[in-house]
Amino acid sequence: MHRFNWVFSHHTQFLGFAFGALLISAATLTPADHLPPVSGSDKLHHIIGFGGWALMCMFGPSKRFFLFLAIIIAWGGAIELIQPYVNRYGEWLDFYADAFGALLTIPLHLLMRRFCQRGIDTA
User: Fold this and answer.
1) Residues 12-30: pLDDT tens digits?
2) What is the pLDDT of residues 71-102, one digit of tens each?
3) Helices 105-122 and 42-56, axial angle in degrees (round to 10)
4) How far is CA 122 from the centre of its chain?
5) Whether 104 contacts 51, CB under 8 Å
6) DSSP letters of 4-32?
7) What residues form the membrane-spanning segments (predicted)?
8) What does DSSP assign to residue 51?
């Protein structure tokens, strides 16, 4: 068994996706008056949140990663449509920040695939 097999398993990737979905959904759909105050830019929070979610599911098959990436971006748009109904403000600039954060993980995914493939070839 190769040392990277568990990292690139379907199970690890799905667990990262599911855990990220729960975290992002809770953070973005909780009414604003129930959230703790945090410092920093709202857009930066979106980039970090959705980028972090994508990072949690980037270790796995590329085909599934890109599928999850599309779902992550679509869910970012859906959240902006839902937020006015949960005492939040839906903003399309937030959606763009969500998508940007998720898309930032593509080079990391490709680099990790190359690094791990090289490790597999030399093992």
Assistant:
1) 899 999 999 999 999 999 9
2) 999 999 999 999 999 988 889 999 999 999 99
3) 30
4) 31
5) yes
6) TTTTT-HHHHHHHHHHHHHHHHHHHHS-G
7) 12-32, 44-60, 65-86, 92-111
8) H
